[in-house]
Amino acid sequence: CGRGPGGCRGGRTDMALRCAASLAAGRQPRGPRREGTVRWSSAAKASAVKINDKASREKILTLESMNPQVKAVEYAVRGPIVLKAGEIEKELRKGIKKPFTEVIKANIGDAHAMGQRPITFLRQVVALCTYPNLLDSPSFPEDAKKRARRILQGCGGNSLGSYTASQGINCIREDVASYIERRDGGVPADPDNIYLTTGASDGISAILKILISGGGKSRTGVMIPIPQYPLYSAAISELDAVQVNYYLDEENCWALNVNELRRALNEAKAYCNPKVLCIINPGNPTGQVQNRKCIEDMIHFAWEEKLFLLADEVYQDNVYSEGCQFHSFKKILYEMGPEYYNNVELASFHSTSKGYMGECGYRGGYMEVINLHPEIKGQLVKLLSVRLCPPVSGQAAMDIVVNPPVPGEESYAQFIKEKESVLNNLAKKAKLTEDMFNKIPGVQCNPLQGAMYAFPRIFIPSKAIEEAKAHKMAPDMFYCMKLLEETGICVVPGSGFGQREGTYHFRMTILPPVEKLKILLEKVKDFHIKFLEKYA
What we know:
Blueprint: H1 11-24, H2 42-55, H3 68-72, H4 80-93, E1 104-105, H5 120-130, H6 142-153, H7 170-183, E2 194-198, H8 199-211, E3 220-226, H9 231-238, E4 242-247, H10 258-268, E5 273-280, H11 292-305, E6 308-312, H12 329-335, H13 338-341, E7 346-351, E8 364-370, H14 374-385, H15 392-402, H16 412-437, E9 443-444, E10 453-454, E11 457-458, H17 462-470, H18 475-487, E12 489-490, E13 492-493, E14 506-509, H19 514-535
Parallel strand pairs: 1-12, 3-4, 3-5, 5-6, 6-7
Antiparallel strand pairs: 2-8, 7-8, 9-11, 10-14, 13-14
Helix pairs in contact: 1-2, 4-18, 5-6, 5-15, 7-15, 8-9, 16-19, 17-18, 18-19
């Protein structure tokens, strides 16, 4: 450390700084031990004053100076209700008494956090990719090893720790394309149109970024379903685009009506340039599965009005109701003929986070973009390259979703058993939730045809609405906050997703284990009846 006769070379400077800080705090400086007193120069005193001045300097970044688009962003799924739930959990850990012993977070579709077991084969392949020494272990099946080796061969240095191409590992994109072809009955898919993403959210945000332009009345308008997943409204706010709401038909099981699309579009043309149409199918938060006719109507509408289609299809494996079937927008587009298939621009999205996998934390996903202008394709790759590449472990997880064990492979029997167990269990819970909600006075719940949420409509008495206004809360936020404080159940108010004026809802996941879900629903029932009695 370069010691001289007086100790470290920086010793005197350090001492001066400490003394200056003492002066700034109003304390008398103390000299160093065994070295006598220190004489203070005018320079040291001036330095103390400067330190004091710096301490009181105004912050550069404040609510007034920050990016106003970021300030406008709202994300209800992790909003005030969830923050309050976190506070209550801390209080419970400190031993503070509540009318309940735990907080049940039914606000978000986080399957594993709710106790769902991981799919063994997916975890085996990711483990092998993460620690390749396990490839010599007899504990892992050969079909898992085969996939892991193929993925690692596509990685720089045969390591999951290397960067990949911005568009993702090539062999995984090939597997995604093969999966899409199988899913859609042979409709061709080109790996070059596949982009691996950090969950579906990353892809949606990237496409919106490249689509949004203009100012004033020429600013891009983005048509989104109401109710919607708040990612869309948040991204639109952040990008300073214009949100154009079209309402799903609650009286008709949240179906899509092309007349409503036309109303929304025509009204929006007065103040923006609508050029994007978003669809969530199966629906979040509404749980509907759109039929073929609805999808054909939307595609025709997009073709007629020259709109870019975004199809959020992350719940494509989550279809429960008899008579319902998932139809991909790409497949229907292809079957409508070349006039549509060769012209309508479509981006569709999938993820590891939902379905039967529930692997939210890996942040794996993909988007397929078709009919993109060749020059825009280059711009999209450039935009994606700014974030270098998606998480490589997430890319590996996505590969197992699209390239699972097949009949004849040793892991197939266990894989299909686990997959069907998860989906059958979700189907039972969907029906249980619908039936129990519809037995509660003042609650109405449409069939949960797919996805993993209920979005019941709740009656809130006028007296409760007035009290909510006094607390400067939306009525359903007030309701959900009371539910949390009295039962420990955390759900998200419908106002965070959008709803028709004068209606109130909340979104609740159906992911808790069956017995816990029954307890949760009974608690909601008891709370709602008491709430109606209190505010009648």
